[in-house]
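Slide 14.
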Amino acid sequence: MAEDLTRFLAAYDAVLDHWPVPVDRMDLTSAYGTTRVTACGPVDGEPLVLLHGGGATSAVWFANVADLSRTRRVYAVDRIGEAGRSLRGGRPVRSVDDLLDWLDGVLDGLGLGRADLCGHSYGGWIALTYALRTPQRVRKLALLDPTQCFAGYKAGYLLRALPMLIRPTAQRARAFLAWETHGAEVDPAWLDLYGFAAEFPRTKVVVGKRPRPRQLRNSTVPTLVLLAGDSRAHDIRRVEAAARLHLPHVETAVLPGLSHHSGPFARAAAFNSMLLDFLGKP
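Slide 15: predicted structure.
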């Protein structure tokens, strides 16, 4: 177990060490534990908080931070209780309220009364759920191929994921990633990290309900929904239609040739440009 943890942390640091910008590493304490946040960009820039997908760790934003941090103060957060450098404390995250309270505490610890949120996959569900509960703290919201926000998973995706969920191993994680990304080339250092992350000791992931249409219709936060054209996680047409139907302040776009799990890095230049354009609008 200790050897596995050592390998994981070495792989994590290897990816972070190759981020193309100088970073500040912060450890924020709360009743839930210690949350690692990697920050970059001008300290007086508009704050942008990044929430990664399941098993990806905050290191997954390696292809985005150079562009995003030119004008923004970027905060990449390791979700507590999952693979990463955040450490669980005396109070476990067991419910959706716990998860959102933890995120509240992260913003408090960063001294942010209000910030832009960007979440990928499960991180998108957390970002949307938080914005619906605490809209006064979210200036703008960006969701990259978000799961369980506007439509459910495809059955085939869940069947493929099942072995990894029952007994996660590095080999199964890499095989699942190769299937979902259609065999696309993935940064080898991050691929190593993703495999080791599957074997990382973690708490049970908090799974909440999909937001109800009434909740979405009451949203006051400008929202961008970017969908992966080749996503195997869900039917992006249903996701886009539901987002446009129910969210009153939404923009949607599809990034062709992009799979769900490669969202942050496979077409990084296009994603970065669309995100910054959206955040820069008055």
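Speaker note: The chain has a mean pLDDT of 95.
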